Write a sequence for this structure.
């Protein structure tokens, strides 16, 4: 891939549900290899923006391109095949399958097995090795045969990330990966994210400011469906408009960490 | 590390399981030389294939179809015409491989109708499958030239050149043909569950949205799964064509579609071998019980109702949940509560069956004879005594069953708690 091609580019993206406009023309360019966080108050449209990028909802207008491909109007599976994988804010895993099965399913398409009904999945060496490697990464190797539905919350969040990275997509979207976690769990999750997104482009929505400022190369601030600022963590901290709209409430928190 | 050690006994178990299954297929007809037993076994073999193919949709992919008989029925129609062509000498094809023709016909119809039905999942899929079932049934009656109208199309299976003396004249030869196909189809359908498509069918069933985000077109997964399932349905249809030497509109009817749904559900949709048990039970109800009583359909309906209410995982699930208890050597603790529950339920069933049989007798056969012979007992249905007795049995049995089940439940909970403590 040409290094100048942005991993993800949004141009004047708008979304309305009925008469309500949620996203008011967002422009965003994310360079390849960058770790980018989107922050903003509740209801700012962060999750909606993720849903637009990943193809869960169609955009009302505007264009989105992924590594040079125009993905506006594409379905989630088409976007995934072009190299974008995402996680969900509300844990979205295969509850009735084992941890191993969850990860294994997520590797199948990227390893080229598609809809095959002539391969025995248990005999596919590359699938097994990749799955075991991912389980090792997310620290669930010892929970391999446990049904995903009975994992602890933090483990399910880890599995959520595992499913997202298993397909080896170069662009990863994480929607509030530490939502509902304790301080220690969030710190562990942050280390995990740091580890597994090595060499990839990461776009994440996150509320935990210690995670955001500890992890992101660049930060964008979304308020009422508009991107009011974009820059390095230092620039965002110093930005008056951001402080006005959002950071005021957060200053004590960031100083505490 | 110890993976090889862990897998070896599992594979041995699998070989044993398939070996035993094959042995049962081979030996089953030797236990009874009555032609009735052979009819029963042949029917079971056909229904095993049909319900396993149905479970490729319901259990494995979460598609509730009300029109699966379309594929077996149309497969049977194509097979019956092929068989007649073989009879006329215009087609040279071994009768033993006729199910391949029916299967391919099922595949073709699956690819046509499935393209429409699998566009949607859930309730919409169920509705469209029902609609297509009704449409095909209407078409079958509309074109008597090809489908033979109400009477259907008859055929003769003893055609073509006999291979190694196998003519398919005697019923035993037909049984072994069905058994061989049933065994092959069982292995094939089990193997399919172990492929990328089979695993993704489960994923699409559990969480279609997530499946889309890991690169899979859920519609395509459902479509391919349905086509493969229709192939096996077509195989089952062809075998019924060979077995009965007639194919009629009934083969594509909603009754057939409902029958396979009931059989599969009773057996259990969650486990691969569930539909096999279901097919065996359903055939026992439909053929064995129907030769004893006119009320068999009522009993089947009641049984189905009870299963849906109290054991939605089917008979297979009831068996499967005993295995951990058995492995922990705690099944003996349940012996006593189980015996009590079975005894109580038996009393209840005797009361129920007595009442129902007398009711049927009084309503349908009251013409002349008002007596029923029960195990040497001469019962007059016009007198109140037998009614009182059966009602009392039903009531007491019912109450006793309730208490016995509570007893079972308490013991069960204690054992489960103990097992969980051991695990952690």
């Amino acid at each position: 891939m040409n290094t100048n091609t942005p991993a993800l580019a949004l141009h004047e993206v708008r979304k309305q549900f009925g008469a309500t406009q949620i996203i008011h023309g967002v422009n965003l360019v994310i360079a390849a290899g960058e770790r980018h966080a989107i922050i903003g108050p509740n209801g700012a449209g962060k999750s909606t923006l993720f849903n637009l990028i990943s193809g869960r909802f169609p955009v009302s207008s505007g264009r989105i391109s992924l590594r040079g491909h125009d993905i506006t109007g594409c379905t989630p599976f088409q976007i995934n095949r072009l190299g974008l994988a995402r996680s969900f804010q509300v844990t979205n895993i295969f509850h009735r399958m084992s941890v191993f099965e969850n990860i294994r399913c997520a590797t199948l398409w990227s390893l080229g097995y598609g809809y095959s009904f002539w391969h025995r999945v248990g005999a596919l060496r590359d699938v097994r090795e990749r799955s075991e490697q991912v389980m090792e990464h997310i620290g669930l190797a010892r929970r391999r045969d446990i049904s995903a539905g009975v994992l602890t919350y933090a483990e399910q969040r880890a599995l959520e990330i595992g499913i997202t990275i298993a397909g080896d997509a170069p662009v990863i979207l994480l929607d509030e990966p530490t939502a509902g976690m304790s301080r220690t769990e969030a710190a562990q999750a942050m280390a995990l994210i740091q580890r597994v997104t090595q060499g990839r482009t990461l776009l994440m929505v996150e509320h935990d400011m210690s995670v955001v400022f500890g992890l992101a190369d660049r930060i964008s601030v979304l308020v009422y469906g508009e991107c009011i600022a974009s820059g390095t963590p230092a620039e965002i901290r110093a930005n008056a408009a951001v402080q006005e709209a959002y950071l005021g409430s957060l200053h004590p928190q960031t100083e505490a960490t | 590390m110890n993976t090889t050690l862990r897998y070896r006994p599992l594979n041995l178990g699998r070989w044993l399981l398939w070996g035993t299954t094959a042995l049962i297929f081979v030996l089953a007809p030797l236990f009874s030389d009555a032609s009735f037993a052979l009819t029963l076994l042949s029917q079971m073999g056909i229904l095993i294939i049909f319900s396993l193919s149905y479970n490729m949709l319901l259990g494995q992919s979460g598609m509730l179809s009300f029109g699966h008989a379309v594929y077996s029925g149309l497969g049977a129609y194509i097979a019956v015409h092929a068989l007649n062509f073989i009879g006329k000498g215009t087609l040279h094809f071994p009768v033993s491989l006729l199910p391949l023709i029916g299967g391919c016909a099922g595949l073709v119809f699956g690819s046509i109708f499935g393209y429409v039905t699998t566009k949607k999942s859930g309730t919409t899929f169920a509705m469209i499958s029902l609609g297509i079932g009704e449409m095909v049934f209407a078409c079958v009656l509309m074109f008597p030239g090809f489908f033979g109208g109400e009477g259907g199309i008859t055929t003769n299976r003893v055609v073509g050149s006999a291979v190694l003396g196998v003519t398919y004249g005697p019923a035993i030869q037909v049984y072994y043909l069905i058994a061989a196909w049933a065994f092959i189809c069982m292995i094939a359908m089990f193997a399919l569950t172990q492929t990328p498509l089979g695993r993704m069918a489960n994923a699409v069933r559990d969480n279609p949205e997530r499946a889309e985000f890991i690169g899979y077109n859920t519609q395509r997964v459902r479509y391919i799964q349905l086509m493969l399932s229709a192939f096996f349905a077509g195989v089952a249809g062809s075998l019924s064509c060979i077995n009965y030497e007639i194919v009629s509109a009934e083969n594509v009817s909603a009754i057939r579609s409902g029958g396979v749904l009931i059989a599969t559900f009773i057996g259990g949709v969650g486990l691969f071998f569930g539909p096999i048990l279901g097919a065996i039970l359903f055939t026992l109800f439909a053929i064995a019980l129907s030769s004893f009583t006119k009320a068999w359909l009522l009993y089947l309906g009641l049984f189905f109702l009870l299963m849906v209410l109290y054991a939605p995982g089917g008979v297979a699930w009831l068996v499967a949940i005993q295995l951990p208890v058995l492995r922990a050597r705690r099944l003996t603790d349940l012996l006593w509560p189980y015996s009590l529950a079975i005894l109580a339920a038996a009393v209840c069933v005797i009361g129920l069956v007595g009442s129902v049989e007398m009711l049927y007798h009084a309503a349908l056969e009251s013409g002349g004879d008002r007596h029923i012979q029960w195990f040497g007992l001469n019962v007059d249905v016009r007198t109140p005594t037998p009614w009182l007795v059966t009602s009392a049995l039903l009531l007491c049995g019912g109450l006793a069953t309730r208490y016995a089940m509570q007893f079972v439940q308490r013991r069960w909970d204690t054992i489960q708690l103990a097992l969980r403590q051991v695990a952690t």
Chain B has three domains: 1-28, 32-295, 322-423.
